[in-house]
């Protein structure tokens, strides 16, 4: 039996990639360990090594093909005595392989990286903070974050970035790609694996007046450093009677990625939003990621900037402006509506956006508010919306107890009780550590159906 | 005898061989230096005695950790600094603040939680800062200041300003993990930081031998190629010469250095500690044989650089400063209630 060589996954969140180069040609003898091809995503390039011996019978996916799905057949290996023409016969003509070999449109490419989100069908409402008529450029969240850091580093010599693998490796998730080349090792600092220590070093440098961007490879690892974040960064301004603070940004991916289980899948939005002295930002779109990261770097306070690995590859329109800075603490109406308010933030927005499209089909006109900042929380925007729709559903991926949604529900009930026509429903991740198994993981996260049901409940449909 | 030699001879450890470092001889102080050291140490001593009194009277709340007995450490190190050099420590910090010339009124009024305190009454004994005097706290979490101090040194290197950071911690904090994370980065990046381990023999109530597998703290940087020196922390001249060596070491780009200051606190860990874990004789022996202030006083008298009366006059002057600070701290108003909501974010 000929052996099918499949498109490998490079990361837990990868769904497709590009076959950039073949290093062997049809008819070549192959031994185990030979490098057959190079594949790449927007994050990394890797070599595909042969596992078996034989002859390369057929290259199914030619070099230069983009958007090849993981597990698609990319080549066929004839083993001992098999005829290479026979071995390759019919493989390339199979429908799935042909589809995989076809170059994917650019938009689909970036969206497909996310298991939870197809291309959002909801048109994003114009952000009043972006001047009308501004040229927009489709940009991934990953690029937007990198651009924000690079722009601020060009602008201010005191800004530097430190963290694990931020320099030579170009970022574990490639967010710092190119920064070492532009700014050098003085300002792009690879640290040892030592979160507690380098968080403290960052805060100390900030107390001395520098403006560090501290990247945590994921916020799960920041648990090791949480004392420095809270006791040193957040409280010094108060304890010093205003003499000394810490202008520092802690940033990195937060929340569940895909199939990395309990210790790597946790949302810290509610945790950090509990702390006076911190600001907590959690963007969804690339425009917000860029405008708010630039604002965070300029802000004189310690900022927790919560990103999401799954969103890194998503593309959104980003305004083409020389200096695009958004206000921290201001929510954005993602889509106006009149029947119900759905409040969400970060990756939670993917559920809200998909649910909105379904609800529209049912004749329900939902307003979606993207909080963007979790602390300080923009209650004015939420309450103005609730006064209009009289119904509220909050969506997030974090744990349910003491969640961001709980706090919003509490405040809305105190400030706008008379405007509510139904109890506020909060949708969160399930109250369990994140399981590994694919089916259980799916069950542990919120889903679009839950959002739709919640909206139906509060609108009495 | 005030001038008796310390039991442990000064020696260099860790990377001492390759670094060529060994503990220097105590500095030869001239008359002015001896008098300055005497006055500075006495100010700390009298200030802390007064703080202890005010605590007993209920003017100072919460925790209050006195520095009595350890005065030579901050005083000698301060004498080795130049303008712009920074200092950071944990919560036994009043002596450090006075050494860095923070106002006695401001420190005492912070202890009593008044609006004239250095943190406007919002920090208390453990949390005071002065950007102007390059004093970066005053930290309540044991060991956290070590990473922060390493970060201050990072900023100095980043700016290329040739200043050094004195990062103080105790024998207790020396067992915290982040200390070693900081050592590693400081050595890797050749940061200009002096780690001053004030070994007063007790981490709260746990003696060094009961808490530490390696009780020679100058050796604690060995895994990170950070040389260390043991210093008689009761002799201000020994501290000063070690400080000179260490600041020179850092300023010439050699990276971090550890100074283990062998010292002793006379009082309990905090005001509520009766110190039952050590004998009265042990304390008495340190006071009578190694007291840092008495050592200077004996030399001043011995060399006829000062008379008893002149030294009494210094004491009177210091007591007046402390009395004034205490008077201010007891009578100053509490913070305005509106202060509750200020300085949270900028």
TrEMBL record, chain A:
SMART domains per UniProt: Transket_pyr (SM00861)
Reactions the enzyme catalyzes: N(6)-[(R)-lipoyl]-L-lysyl-[protein] + pyruvate + H(+) = N(6)-[(R)-S(8)-acetyldihydrolipoyl]-L-lysyl-[protein] + CO2
InterPro entries, alphabetized: 2-oxoA_DH_lipoyl-BS, Biotin_lipoyl, PDHB_mito-type, Single_hybrid_motif, THDP-binding, Transketo_C/PFOR_II, Transketolase-like_Pyr-bd, Transketolase_C
Keyword Metal-binding: no
A UniProt-annotated Pfam family: Transket_pyr
GO biological process: one example: pyruvate decarboxylation to acetyl-CoA
GO MF annotations in UniProt: pyruvate dehydrogenase (acetyl-transferring) activity
Cofactor: (R)-lipoate; thiamine diphosphate
Composition bias type Low complexity, residue spans: 112-125
Keywords for this protein: Lipoyl, Oxidoreductase, Pyruvate, Thiamine pyrophosphate
EC number: 1.2.4.1
Domain Lipoyl-binding: 2-78
Region (Disordered): 112-135
Annotated function: The pyruvate dehydrogenase complex catalyzes the overall conversion of pyruvate to acetyl-CoA and CO(2). It contains multiple copies of three enzymatic components: pyruvate dehydrogenase (E1), dihydrolipoamide acetyltransferase (E2) and lipoamide dehydrogenase (E3). The pyruvate dehydrogenase complex catalyzes the overall conversion of pyruvate to acetyl-CoA and CO2.
Subunit structure of this chain's protein: Heterodimer of an alpha and a beta chain.
Record NCBIfam families: PRK09212.1 (NF006667), PRK11892.1 (NF008854)
Name this protein carries in UniProt: Pyruvate dehydrogenase E1 component subunit beta
Species: Mesorhizobium metallidurans STM 2683
Name of the gene: pdhB
UniProtKB/TrEMBL annotation, chain B:
Keywords: Oxidoreductase, Pyruvate, Thiamine pyrophosphate
Catalytic activity, EC: 1.2.4.1
Enzyme class: oxidoreductase
Region Disordered, residue ranges: 1-27
UniProt cofactor(s): thiamine diphosphate
All copies of domain Dehydrogenase E1 component, residue ranges: 40-337
SUPFAM superfamilies: Thiamin diphosphate-binding fold (THDP-binding)
One GO molecular-function entry: pyruvate dehydrogenase (acetyl-transferring) activity
GO biological process: pyruvate decarboxylation to acetyl-CoA
Reaction it catalyzes: N(6)-[(R)-lipoyl]-L-lysyl-[protein] + pyruvate + H(+) = N(6)-[(R)-S(8)-acetyldihydrolipoyl]-L-lysyl-[protein] + CO2
InterPro entries: DH_E1 (IPR001017), PDH_E1_Alpha_Subunit (IPR050642), Pyrv_DH_E1_asu_subgrp-y (IPR017597), THDP-binding (IPR029061)
Task of the protein: The pyruvate dehydrogenase complex catalyzes the overall conversion of pyruvate to acetyl-CoA and CO(2). It contains multiple copies of three enzymatic components: pyruvate dehydrogenase (E1), dihydrolipoamide acetyltransferase (E2) and lipoamide dehydrogenase (E3).
PANTHER family in UniProt: PYRUVATE DEHYDROGENASE E1 COMPONENT SUBUNIT ALPHA, PYRUVATE DEHYDROGENASE E1 COMPONENT, ALPHA SUBUNIT BACTERIAL AND ORGANELLAR
NCBIfam families in the record: PDH_E1_alph_y (TIGR03182)
Subunit structure of this chain's protein: Heterodimer of an alpha and a beta chain.
Protein name stated in the entry: Pyruvate dehydrogenase E1 component subunit alpha
Organism this protein belongs to: Mesorhizobium metallidurans STM 2683
